[in-house]
Amino acid sequence: MDTNDSLRVASLWHSMHAISQQLSLTTGCSKIELLEGNTFDLHCFQSLTGTKFFVVCKLGTQHMEALLKVVYELYTDYVLKNPFYEMKMPIRCEVFDINLTQTVQKDRVALLGR
């Protein structure tokens, strides 16, 4: 996805998240963690500060919550500690990108054996 597509997904998710809190019949329900589509799953991890991380994957892919928590750790280590990063702006941090790619590749190898 390009930056505009990513922003559209985030905007849509934010709206669905706000509506779901009001419509939920479950007491204490405060967030959406998984959206199951016909051809994909969209997982979300929300940090305590409200920052949301998403992963789009094949239907039924396991352990995406754990992957998203690792992505959040990478974000705190490489993005938030970067003095040139501005909050609420797209992430442009090469060290973060490199570590994110390595993490996803390791996860892919662990899950798929390739």
UniProtKB/TrEMBL annotation:
Keyword check for Transport: yes
Classification via Pfam families: Sybindin
Highest taxon listed in the record's lineage: Eukaryota
Gene Ontology terms describing biological process: endoplasmic reticulum to Golgi vesicle-mediated transport
Record keywords: Endoplasmic reticulum, ER-Golgi transport, Golgi apparatus, Transport
CC annotations in GO: endoplasmic reticulum; Golgi apparatus; TRAPP complex
Major localisation: endoplasmic reticulum
Subcellular location: Endoplasmic reticulum; Golgi apparatus, cis-Golgi network; Golgi apparatus
Gene3D superfamilies, per the entry: 3.30.450.70
SMART domains, A to Z: Sybindin
PANTHER family for this protein: TRAFFICKING PROTEIN PARTICLE COMPLEX SUBUNIT, TRAFFICKING PROTEIN PARTICLE COMPLEX SUBUNIT 4
Stated family: Belongs to the TRAPP small subunits family. TRAPPC4 subfamily.
Subunit structure: Part of the multisubunit transport protein particle (TRAPP) complex.
Name of this chain's protein: Trafficking protein particle complex subunit
Organism: Gossypium mustelinum
Lineage: Eukaryota, Viridiplantae, Streptophyta, Embryophyta, Tracheophyta
